[in-house]
Amino acid sequence: MVSATTIDGVKLKPIHDLVDARGTLQHMVRADDPEFFSGFGEIYFSSSNPGIVKGWHRQSMQTNLLSCIQGRLRLVLFDDREGSATRGAVQVVEFGDGHRTLVRVPPGVVYGWKNDTQQTALLANCTDRPHDPASAEKIDLASGRIPYVW
Amino acid sequence: MVSATTIDGVKLKPIHDLVDARGTLQHMVRADDPEFFSGFGEIYFSSSNPGIVKGWHRQSMQTNLLSCIQGRLRLVLFDDREGSATRGAVQVVEFGDGHRTLVRVPPGVVYGWKNDTQQTALLANCTDRPHDPASAEKIDLASGRIPYVW
């Protein structure tokens, strides 16, 4: 499920799990996908306990490819980029089990995610640059700087 | 836990989960790791139900980077490469929760994995080439061609 608003540069693609008696197979991204793949920096996984919000994150240089690979999460994106056609927009994507979705988050877009369920959820982030603390920003959830109430 | 045998070209690296009240953070691989990273082809996830064996797989060109990112799995590797210094060797790696490990499986090495637990386990594979069916081989578990009894 996605909100009506689409932030400029944010892209979504459904992922179809292949399920059989042994388990599942789910793809995330391939290097020969020109629309989503812009280089490989690193891949890491972040789990969220029930009720937890993680965020707000912003990287000035890095593109993030996100998929909720286990459980379900509510991903919230906020566009505060100067000069962006969609500046001020908030976009919400619910993804994970049952609606697996690859989400491309371009540089400069603020993002956070909440686990609204009773099960631990697991987010995969495939970035196009290795994490660089100098160009990464953490905006306190309690700061009120982002116009979204969790 | 690993067997005493190490197949030529197989590499292992411990991954240390960062745990806090919100959940965990686990890395897998970065592009600036010269020992493990040899290019990005694709990233996908394969889950195994309790008791399930998946395999045997072999790709002639592709290097696989494997991490059990949820639950625990028994990974078995078999070296049938002509000219290999460790031809005939079987290597067993148990990895996942509690002993997160990145495993590099070089081209030509046969591999399979079993979920010995009562919980579903999730394997991540970060390959250095997009999957190419022409250079990928599936060896039937029941064929008896691989000298390992699950």
Q: Care to describe what's here?
A:
2 copies of one chain form a homodimer. With 150 residues, the first copy, chain A, is mainly beta. Chain A has one domain (11-139): Jelly Rolls (Sandwich). Helix content of chain A is 0%, strand content 47%. Chain A has strands at 11-14, 18-20, 23-30, 42-48, 53-59, 64-70, 72-78, 90-96, 101-105, 110-114, 121-127, 136-138. In chain A, the strands form 3 sheets. Chain A has a 5-stranded antiparallel beta sheet, with no helix packed on it. In chain A, strands 8-7-10-5-12 form a 5-stranded antiparallel beta sheet, with no helix packed on it. Chain A is globular. The interface between A and B is medium-sized, with 32 and 32 residues.
CATH topology of chain A: Jelly Rolls
Q: How would you describe the shape of chain A?
A: globular
Helix proportion range of chain A: under 10%
Return the CATH class of chain A.
Answer: Mainly Beta
Biggest beta-sheet profile of chain A: 5 strands, antiparallel
The chain-level mean pLDDT of chain A equals 95
Radius of gyration of chain A: 15 Å
Query: Biggest interface and its residues per chain?
Result: A-B, 32 and 32 residues
Our count of helices of chain A gives: 0
What low-confidence regions of chain A span 5 or more consecutive residues with pLDDT below 50? none
Give the percentage of residues in beta strands of chain A.
over 45%
Number of strands of chain A: 12
How far apart, in Å, are the first and last alpha carbons of chain A? 17 Å
Number of domains of chain A: 1
As an assembly, this protein is homodimer
The SSE string of chain A, one letter per element, is EEEEEEEEEEEE
What is the CATH superfamily classification of chain A? Jelly Rolls
Structural class of chain A: mainly beta
What is the CATH architecture annotation of chain A?
Sandwich
